[in-house]
Amino acid sequence: MTLERPTPREMLDVALAEAVTGAGEGGIPIGAALFVDGELLGSGHNRRVQLDSPIHHGETDCLMSAGRHPASVYARATMVTTLSPCDMCTGAILLYKIPHVVIGENTTFLGGEELLRSRGVTVTVLDDARCIDMMTAFIAAKPELWHEDISV
Amino acid sequence: MTLERPTPREMLDVALAEAVTGAGEGGIPIGAALFVDGELLGSGHNRRVQLDSPIHHGETDCLMSAGRHPASVYARATMVTTLSPCDMCTGAILLYKIPHVVIGENTTFLGGEELLRSRGVTVTVLDDARCIDMMTAFIAAKPELWHEDISV
C-alpha cells in the first residue's frame, strides 16, 4: 500500500497548529513543519519570548526539533511555514538545501522568497486567510514585539 | 576617560577562544563574538554536537547568548567570527542589520560574504593563520561532521 502524501494545505495545518501553540504561550504566532517524503520530521514555533532567544524563529525552531540530518535527508524535504521566511530562516533553508518551501502567507511580511527562487528553491505561497488573520491581529496587538522580531 | 575600542584582531581573539572551547567539548571549532560600541555583548560557538542542534552555529549561538535587543542596538554592532559565515548565519546578520562583520578566515570555507556586501554590510577578512590552521585540522580529522554542518 502506498500512502498518499499530504497536500500543501494539510502540511500547513501542522505549522499553523504550532503557531497557535506559540500564541497560547504568549509568544509570536509563527509556526513551521518539516516533511521528508511526506512524513513529518519535526515542527516548531517562534520562541523569542519563551526562550528569550533571537534565533528561535518558526523555521529554525523546527529544524532544531527535527534534529541532525545529512544533506541527503534535507534534499527530500519540504519546509512549511505560516509566514514568509525572514532573512535568517531563508538562509537556514539555503544552508540545508531544502528544495521546496510552502508559505502560508506573505501579505503581512515578505521575506527572502526572491533569494530562495534565485537559488533554485521551489516556493509555494498559499495565501491562507487563517495565517493572514492571525498575524494581522498579533501585529496590531504587539507591534513592538513584532518589530523586535524582524529588527525594524 | 575614553577607553580605546578593541581592534578587529583583539575582537577575533574572543571568537577564537570560543572556538577553542567548542573544540574542547568535542564540537566543531567555530566561534563568534558580538561587540556593541566596542563592548562585548555576547559570544558563542558552534554547538551542533553538544546540543544535537543544526541551528547553533558560532554566530547564531553568539546571538542567542547576547539575548534580545532592539534594532537600535544591532545597528551599532560588529559580529566577529572565526570562519566565513554560512548562508544561515549570513541571513541572521542581515535580519538583525548588523553593519560590520569581521571574519577570521575564508580560506577553508567561503560563505555569504558577497550577499552581505551587496546588502551594505562592511566585511573585513583577517586571514588569520590560527583560524585557518584550526579549521584545516578539524576538517581533516572529522570530514563527515564538517560536511553535515555545511550540508554537502
From TrEMBL, chains A, B:
Keyword Nucleus: no
Keywords (A to Z) from UniProt: Hydrolase
SUPFAM superfamilies: Cytidine deaminase-like
Species, as recorded: Subtercola frigoramans
Residues covered by the CMP/dCMP-type deaminase domain: 6-123
Any one GO molecular-function label of the UniProt entry: cytosine deaminase activity
EC class name: hydrolase
Lineage: Bacteria, Bacillati, Actinomycetota, Actinomycetes, Micrococcales
InterPro entries referenced in this protein's UniProt entry, alphabetically: CMP_dCMP_dom, Cytidine_deaminase-like
Domain of life, per lineage: Bacteria
Keyword Iron-sulfur: no
Transmembrane parts of this sequence: none
CDD domains associated with the record: nucleoside_deaminase (cd01285)
EC number(s) recorded for this UniProt protein: 3.5.4.1
Pfam families: dCMP_cyt_deam_1
Protein name (record): Cytosine deaminase
